[in-house]
Amino acid sequence: SGTPQNVIEKFSFSVDSNSSDVGDMTSTRNGMTGNQSTTHGYSTGGNNEQGEMIDKFSFSTDGNATDIGNLTVIRYFPCGQSSGTHGYVSAGNNGYQGGGAVNVIDKFAFASNSNATDVGDLTQSKSHGAGQQY
């Protein structure tokens, strides 16, 4: 519906079945992206004044997300990428602050709860892209 939500839903990869509501994000947002470590999921960005947030939630237990840090730029519809040790958030749109598409590449460590750092720029400012997992 495009209506901002705060729901964390989980579904099985091994059995075809419906999802279930297992917790809440720290704020109601839409236009986020996702990252993953082996133990946690991360939702970053979003279309509101908290669009720089990095939320973290456990895969092994149901529960609410916690705010563990911030991206360097408020943005919605960014691209999420993950390595074995870090989450990356690239591109997006910071129209909430009156801007447009951005070219920033942010990086945050899965091993610590801290803010992301700007580690580079894309060749062009972009929004509504796709990400990859390593």
Structure description:
The chain is an all-beta fold and 134 residues long. It has strands spanning 5-10, 20-29, 33-36, 40-44, 53-58, 66-70, 79-82, 86-90, 102-109, 117-126. Strands 3-4-5-6 form a 4-stranded antiparallel β-sheet, with no helix packed on it. It has a 4-stranded antiparallel β-sheet with strand order 7-8-9-10, with no helix packed on it. The mean pLDDT is 91.
Topology:
Blueprint (H helix, E strand, L loop, with lengths): L4 E6 L9 E10 L3 E4 L3 E5 L8 E6 L7 E5 L8 E4 L3 E5 L11 E8 L7 E10 L8
Antiparallel strand pairs: 1-2, 3-4, 4-5, 5-6, 7-8, 8-9, 9-10
Key terms:
134 residues; mainly beta; 4-stranded antiparallel β-sheet; 10 strands; 0% helix; globular
